[in-house]
Structures are given as C-alpha cells and as structure tokens.
Amino acid sequence: MGNKPVELRFMLGFDISRVSEPRIESYTARENHPDTEKREGPKERWVFQSGDDYWIWEWAKEREEIGSSNIYRLYKLITEEMLHPSIKSDNIFDVELENSADTIIPVIYQPAVDSLDNFVREVHCVPKPEEADGSYEIEVSIIFNNEQLRKHTYGGILNKIYEIFRRLFYGRTLDIETFNIIIRKDIINNTFIFENIYSNEHQLEDDSIHGDRPPAPERSIKYYFINRNHPVIFINTSNHAMAEHDTNHRIWKWEYVPWINIAPVKLGNKTRKDIEKEFKPILKFW
Questions:
Q1: Between 3 and 83, whose confidence is greater?
Q2: Which is nearest to 248 in space by CA: 106, 114, 151, 57?
Q3: What confidence score (pLDDT) does residue 39 get?
C-alpha cells in the first residue's frame, strides 16, 4: 500500500447462548511473550462465562468494585440485548464504522496466522448485466499475496516447488480466487456461488480443498453493518477455499473492509479475465 496509513482490524466470533453472572476469581495467565512459559499471576480477575467454552475477563483493579468494571458493563449490555433485541434477527452483523458504501462490497475474514504470508491485497467487484427477472450477478475476485500451504510442507520445500510451478504456468505467485454474488429484485434471497472454491467444513490446516464442483449450489448470506450491501465471507483454508460461515472459531481473524479509507487492501473493478491478462506465463498447458 506504499506509504498509505492503514488499520488492521481483528475479529474473534462466537455464539452467545447464555452468560453467567460476573464473578471474582484467582487466575494465572500466559503472557504474550516469546518465552511461552512466562506467566502472570496468580491474581484476581473479573470474569463472566458464555456457554461452556468462552470466558471474557479483565484483571481486577485495586479500590474498584466489580460492578463498576468494563466486564460488568459488557455483561449488562449482552443480557439486555438477549432480553430485548435492538435489531431483528436477520443475519446482519451490527458493527459501527466511520463510513459506509452504497454499492455491493463484501467484508472478508481470514485467519490472522495465515494472513502473515497469504494476506489479501486487492478486492475487485464487477456487476454483470441484469437478467429478465431483475436479478443480476456480481463477480468478486480476491487477490492474495501468496498461497503458502500449511500441511506437509517439509520445511517449505514443497511450497518453493509450488511457487516455481505457478511462476512458470501462471506468471505469478499471487493467488486469485473468484466467486459470485446473486442479487435478486427482492434483495432478501441474495446468495453466494463458490464454484470450485467452497471450503465446506474444512479448516485452516487443510490444503487443496475445491468444493462445490459445477453446477455449484447457491449459499446463504450474512450481512455486515445493518444493511444488505456488505455480504460476509470467510477464507477458511490455506489454499483460500471460502464459505459463508467460519470453520476456525478459535483463531483470530483479520477483518478486511475494502471501502474504508484506511483499509489494508485495494478496492477495484477489474474482471477476472482482466486481472489474468496482467500476468505472462513462461510456459503454457496448451
């Protein structure tokens, strides 16, 4: 992105079915430190639990009560939302941003550990001509910095061979993946088509997943930012197979919001064919 200032956004999502009353307990935490044996505590923390698998907490502060803590305020907000929902249960992610966009642009989530090599560089959205019933498709192409596979790489040897192969036959080490969004006249029944690139339930450690062979089925959509302009997709595997749902629940994600000014990605309007023309392979299959 040159000298442009950017902001990295992170997300960790999980379902909230029930929450426990905040409590005080003694806890020992592992610090974010190269020495993974380094620990902090034991000392008191304020904590509440969501379901059986998630704990949200902060260290207790001297001369403060748990009732005045951020943890308690968050607990009250969650319980109030569960009792009296402020928005309809309509598959919309309720997130505040400094600006929005009036066109159809997806929001993309990618496991942060995979983003170190395989981060998203560009997102291109191209509407296709309208059909007789008023529906139309949007071709979305995502350009990734690389396609570093994670499974059985033998110290990176296979990845190096794979890079040479891509340079020879594609003229690039960048990875390009394309899917379509079907926009219908009623806008309620919009769907994805992830032809040859659907992840199913496969996770980050799985390589070479190419689900939804033609004819690919339509997949449901969840939305971001309280409108239907921004479908949400998850990059789930290291070869960039994707889906409308997250299969790496315990891994932090990079959040790509392509239309904001400080996005770490470039937003464009090139077709997949136009993008491919920019690269000259050394060898050809034909």
A1: 83
A2: 114
A3: 80
Higher pLDDT, 17 or 179: 179
pLDDT value for 47: 95
Grade residue 188 by pLDDT with cuts at 50, 70 and 90: confident
Rounded Cα–Cα distance for residues 5 and 85 (Å):
37
Query: What is the phi/psi pair of residue 156, to 5°?
Result: 95, 0
Domain extent listing, the chain = 16-83, 93-277
Distance CA 78, CA 260 (A): 28
User: According to the model, what pLDDT value does residue 81 have?
Assistant: 80
CB 100 within 8 A of CB 44: no
Confidence of residue 213 (pLDDT cuts 50, 70, 90): very high
The DSSP letter of residue 70 is H
> Residue 149 has what DSSP assignment?
-
Q: What is the DSSP string of 7-66?
A: --EEE-----S-BPPPEEEEEEEE-SSSSTT-EEEEEEEEEEEETTTEEEEEE--TT--G
Return the bridge partners of 56, or none. 48
Sheet holding 39-50, edge to edge: 23-30, 39-50, 54-59
| Secondary element (H or E) of residue 1 | none
SS3 214: coil
Task: Report residue 247 CA to chain centroid gap.
Answer: 10
